[in-house]
Amino acid sequence: MRRVSLFLLIVGILAAPALADVVALKNGDRVTGTFVKIAGGKMVFNGALTGEVSLDLANIQTFNTAQPITVHLKDGTVLKSRAVQGQPGQIALAPTDVMGAQTLNFADIAAVNPPPKPKVKWSGSINAGFASTHGNTFSESGSLSFDAARRSKIDRTTVFARYLVSRTKETDSVTGKTEKVTTEESFAFGGKYDYFFSKKMYGFLNGRFKKDHIADLDRRVIGGAGIGYQWIEEDTMNFSTDLGLSEICEKYVTHGDVTKTDNLTVQAGYHFDWKITDKIDFIHNLTYFPSITDTLSDYFLTTDAEFRLALTESMFSSFKAILDYDSTPAKNVGSTDTKYILSIGWNF
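The structure assignment produced for this chain is given below.
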């Protein structure tokens, strides 16, 4: 029994190198261990004596593996098999039930055993603000907004929603009664979809809706399409520009009088965000809609600017200014609508 155990131990020791992965370097050295991956022109290998090391492909002659590896070629082809001893600068794959033996040049390899791509997730923020004054004067105001975005390699989707309301007390000069009066109430939502034809160029579809009780705006519906260019897309700064066509449909109801307009316009705008410091962010959007038939005197413009100060990892304070300008508003309605919002937000 003791002889059988000793025999099995010797067989195990002799078979271990055969079960290990081996990298042959151009300088004649051989490293035994476990193959991890190839990415960015380097091989990550967990050597039995060296631990995990990063080796330049330019210094590797060939390698073989005991287990199948997944090879991603630059043309998009994906192959899976064991690597066997090959010629210098090549990966030789053993035949399988679904493919014959393959010989691949290192230069044709995009990656081997790449980590799974992270799932594309939505990210965004929810902002809420409230202010109340009582005593000699009375006022109440509240705001709630939602922004979210989803970015994949080929497309990007952004959505938003915003609600604002303010009230104050007014005394009737005739009856002397004091009542709470709504001085501001508006609701808006919208979204935009970008499809990237290349790393920078994209086509887009967008739409937005707004209703403003105080401005007598029953509805403003905007739908558009066009092309855009992503000039900067980094962790600390993003800048893109859009150009296309939009349809703007408006309905004002003022003391029973109804005014409707429907205009085809140019749509030109940009988005800019900048992480100024680890705690301060700046976000700015502007979109200009000049009428195609009367570009200079008939146009609509919307813009907003926001500063965010990080309070915790997920919470921030926000100061935001929003301006809408309609050069041809309804009768007795002002052209400019400006809002200032101070709120607390949560990132998700």
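Interim note for the steering committee: The first strand starts at residue 21 and ends at 25. Helices lie at 2-19.
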